[in-house]
Formin-like protein 18 (Populus tomentosa), 445 residues
Amino acid sequence: MDPCPFVRLTVGNLALRIPVASKSARSVVHPSSSPCFCKIKLKNFPLQTAVIPSQFPEGQLQTVAATFHLSKSDLDRLVAKSIFTNKLQLKISLYTGRLGTTCGVNSGRLLGKVSVPLDLAGTESRGVTFHNGWISIGKERVKSSSAVFHLNVKAEPDPRFVFQFDGEPECSPQVFQIRGNIRQPVFTCKFSLRTTGGGDRNRRSISLQEEPSSSRSWLSSFGSERDRPLKERKGWSITVHDLSGSPVAAASMVTPFVPSPGSDRVSRSNPGSWLILRPGAGTWKPWGRLESWRERGSSDGLGYRFELIPDTNGTMSAASIVLAESTLSSHKGGKFVIDLGACSNGRTTPANSASPGCSPRGSGDHGYGLWPNCMHRGFVMSASVEGEGKCSKPGVEVGVQHVSCTEDAAAFVALAAAVDLSMDACKLFSQRLRKELCQDQDMLG
């Protein structure tokens, strides 16, 4: 498999020093003690925001405030524009005050703006640092009297494998690898329903060379202790096969999706869950766990949490590592992202992008060394998800450093399918599901 060229543009190591008048009427620059944030804009990309730390992160690991992922088409477009129009710039607006809004009005007072020129030509094959150090801001660009802002802006090659479902996961589609204009089939998916009754007519289950009985009983044990209501969504699974027909990954719904008492939605306190499985020693081994629920409030989105399960000989471990936790818009959809270089002390927008990055959360280690058999940091994977009622053919991107065999890529494809299916599993129980997802007429809502 050949990867596609991508570039990762990062903005990090932020710090701000603001002049303070002294008794001698001279302006002395001090670290900012008041809350500050910035808005970071790259042409034609969504605006990102980040909190500016109160202390300069000198001697610490690189802290990432914003990240832009540029595909080959993005690069070609931006490079062409910088040749024929004004030179491409990264623009940053700095504000004093707290990040957020009050009564619908953006808080914060504009302190000043800075711009960093970018020349992205050739960055898909070599790393470039565009700025690393202090820069003056404000109207008076006099170093002795103006506020100064520290930042690091760099671009690094970030090649990825790109996959595209040829249909909705519940329709058992093919999965193609995309490279430029070339589409090559690499996997097939088989969606199935596993039920506990209804006879052989509905007895369809995930299999690994006619799934071993020990694996089947192990899978069915999850969620079996729950008193299940009559209305539930359960037993969904999807198996990923290579072109020879061998199963190479799977996603199995192990905790049913049920509405909370007196409600028609799956709550955060009682989420449904999937296991992402990989084959090993004639059975399925757990690789990751995805929990999903329906958020309340104005967001009304799909909430999710994905955790990595260390290899513990087929048993669940308390040492599971949370790699992603965020919300996707139920109406617009968005992207599920695992990025081990995301910021731990700031936020990024838009809200439908994933936030996690650091794992364990708040450790500030940016996931370094937590991914099995890989000491790389940075982008791991992303999967596109459409909103409710829209035809969804997920696109999946996986960082090359996280793929050493077919099973690696297939596990991410299975995870992408589980995220997409969770949009349906968390649909309000007052709404109907499509027939491919229904075990019987009671499932139609």
Notes: The two ends are 43 Å apart (CA to CA). The chain has two domains: 6-157, 160-444. The mean pLDDT is 79. Residues 406-425 form the longest helix (20 residues).
